[in-house]
Amino acid sequence: MSDEAFSDINGNRISLDCQRHSDFCGEFTVSSPKLSFLKVTGCTCALWLCAYTIFFFTEVTEVLSVAIMLSLVGMMGHLHFLKIDHESLLVIGSLGIQMTSSYASGRESTTFIEMSKVKDVVINEAIYMQRVIYYLCILLKEPLHPNEVGDIVPVFQSCKPRLNCLIEIYKQCQEILAQS
C-alpha cells in the first residue's frame, strides 16, 4: 500500500492510495482535501451580513429567514451533489473496471464497465483554459468493430490529478490488464 501526496491541476493537495489485492486486482483512490471550515464560515457570514444589511434598511424579517434557509439548503446541496471527497478506480483483470465517487454527504456514485467492453486504459491530453492537462481514461471497444475505439470514459473527473499521479496509476493498471 502506498500513500503519497500529489497535487491536482490547480495545485491543491490530493493523495493517492494504491492497493494491490492480488496480481489481477488493484484499487486506486484519489482523495481531495476536506471542506474548509473557514471557507464555509466565511460564505455563511457574508450571506448573513448581506441579509442583515437588507433587513436594516427594509425592516422585513422574512429576509433573515430566507438567508438562513438559503445558507442551509446551499450547504446541504453542495455537500450532497458537488463536493466529492474521493474517487476510486477498482481494476479486476478478468471481470472489469469499477469507478466510484464518494461525496462529502456519504452518497456514492458507482459505474462498472465489463472487461469485454474495455479496449485499453490510457493517459490522454487535452487543452483546458490555455493549458495542456492530462487525464486517465478508459477506451471502450466499438460494438460492431472491436478493433476500433467506440467511447472514451474519463476517470478521476473531480480530483483532476497531475501527470505524475496518473503515471503511477497507469503503470499498475497496465500490469493488471497484462495479467488477464
From TrEMBL:
GO terms for biological process: GPI anchor biosynthetic process. InterPro entries: PIG-H (IPR044215), PIGH-H_dom (IPR019328). One of its GO terms (cellular component) is glycosylphosphatidylinositol-N-acetylglucosaminyltransferase (GPI-GnT) complex. It comes from the Eukaryota. The chain crosses the membrane at residues 37-57, 63-82. Belongs to the PIGH family. PANTHER family: PHOSPHATIDYLINOSITOL N-ACETYLGLUCOSAMINYLTRANSFERASE SUBUNIT H (PTHR15231). This is Phosphatidylinositol glycan anchor biosynthesis, class H. It comes from Erpetoichthys calabaricus. The gene is PIGH.
